[in-house]
Amino acid sequence: MIELHHLEKRFGDSFAVQDLNLTFPDGELTALLGPSGCGKTTTLRMINRLIEPSGGQVRLNGQDTRALKPEALRRGIGYVIQQVGLFPHLNVAQNVATVPDLLGRDRRATAARVDELLDLVGLDPDTFRHKRPGELSGGQAQRVGVARALAADPPVLLMDEPFGALDPLARDRLQDAFRDIQRRLRKTVVMVTHDIDEALRLGDRVALMNAGRLEQFGTPDDLIHRPVSDFVRQFLGEDAALRQLAGQPVSRFMAALDGASPLPPVAVEDTLNARSALAVLLREGTDRLTVTRGGQAVGTVGWADLRTSGPERP
Ligand SMILES: Nc1ncnc2c1ncn2[C@@H]1O[C@H](COP(=O)(O)OP(=O)(O)OP(=O)(O)O)[C@@H](O)[C@H]1O
User: In angstroms, rounded to a whole number, what is the distance separating the alpha carbons of residues 213 and 23?
Assistant: First the structure.
């Protein structure tokens, strides 16, 4: 568990971060969201002491991080940045193995782990193991960056706009891949982003910052349906609820089949995103759809299901 207590950072006379109190729960992904210059990156970098706080405390599992050597602290905390920072003279496998090698882990075990991680991030090990960073596309390099951060198996992962430099299609794919990885590995992740969709899509929780301070901390649902201020409402925008629907399959909203009522005639696949299901309801002028999986009805969905404050996240 990472706790920030009255954390602050001053640069000269101005505060980049001010009186920040926040707990990042274990096994969850928290998105640090906010407009440019609000202090997201400064906050992230104070967690692994790439930036030293001017005041307050960061506690990792109850321990004040100032009591730890920065190098020792960083060994237990993965760090992924937008510019990836792969070593150009090392191949993909060597890049991924950097930290395990530094820690003196067994070579053969590391090689197996590298292949496993490349698989996990969707890169075929045989194709990519020996490539140099210069031979990779932006999306492939970002995947290697994620694999490298996971290689040391750190319980905590800090990510600064990790998918920022990608085109929308590659970003969507990598976000999906990362969400699947996170469901399995359950790391404690803090991810800086200024992309609202990304925060709502990937965040178990969102910490919305404004001018160095915390504006609201809650689930995506809390921010959308229970904003604490006009700033939150305006930052998320009128279509925040639609954005949230866009990031989730309709299956998460559907009601169980009751056996007694006839099935609605219009059907959609369970993997369709909930925003598109809403569009089908509008287009068809109907108030309920059948949801199918592989041609079999598995539930139904109507306006009210989509309008509720959103499903529980698995
Ligand atoms: N080394 C520094 N020296 C002086 N001011 C700094 C320094 N680093 C950051 N700042 C200032 O601190 C504030 C917060 O910066 P930070 O990079 O944390 O914001 P951010 O929310 O991550 O922004 P962005 O989304 O644009 O990356 C900004 O006003 C920035 O100009």
Answer: 14
Q: Ligand 1 in contact with 25 (CB < 6 A)?
A: no
Q: Looking at the CA of residue 39, tell me the nearest atom of ligand 1.
A: 18
Q: Is the CB of residue 219 below 6 angstroms from any atom belonging to ligand 1? A: no
Q: Check pocket membership of 33 for ligand 1, CB cut-off 6 A.
A: no
Asked if domains 2-245 and 249-307 share a fold, the reply is no
| Ligand 1 site, residue 9, Cβ cutoff 6 A | no
How far is 248 from 241, CA to CA, in rounded Å? 11
CA of 249 to the centre of ligand 1 (A): 36
Contact of 144 with 65, CB cutoff 8 Å: no
Q: Which residue's CA is minimally distant from atom 26 of ligand 1? A: 36
Residue 213 Cβ < 6 Å to ligand 1:
no
Indicate if ligand 1 lies below 6 Å from the C-beta of 39.
yes
What is the ipTM score, two decimals?
0.95
Q: Hey, whose CA ends up nearest to atom 24 of ligand 1?
A: 36
**pLDDT tens track of the chain, all 314 residues?**
899 999 999 999 999 999 999 999 999 999 999 999 999 999 999 999 999 999 999 999 999 999 989 888 888 888 888 766 788 899 999 999 887 777 677 788 788 889 988 988 888 999 999 999 999 988 888 889 888 888 878 889 999 988 876 777 778 878 888 888 888 889 999 999 988 988 988 999 999 999 999 999 999 989 988 999 999 999 998 788 788 888 788 999 999 998 788 899 999 999 999 999 999 999 999 999 999 999 999 999 999 898 765 544 44
Classify domain 249-307 by CATH architecture. Alpha-Beta Complex (3.90)
In the chain, what are the domain boundaries?
A: 2-245, 249-307
Beta-carbon contacts of residue 119 (< 8 Å; ≥ 6 apart): 125
Instruction: Name the percent of the chain in helix, strand, coil, to the closest 5.
Output: 40, 25, 35
Sheet of 55-60, strands arranged across = 14-24, 2-11, 55-60, 63-64
Indicate the CATH number of 2-245 among 3.40.50.300, 1.20.200.10, 3.30.470.30, 3.30.70.260.
3.40.50.300
Q: The whole model's pTM is what?
A: 0.81
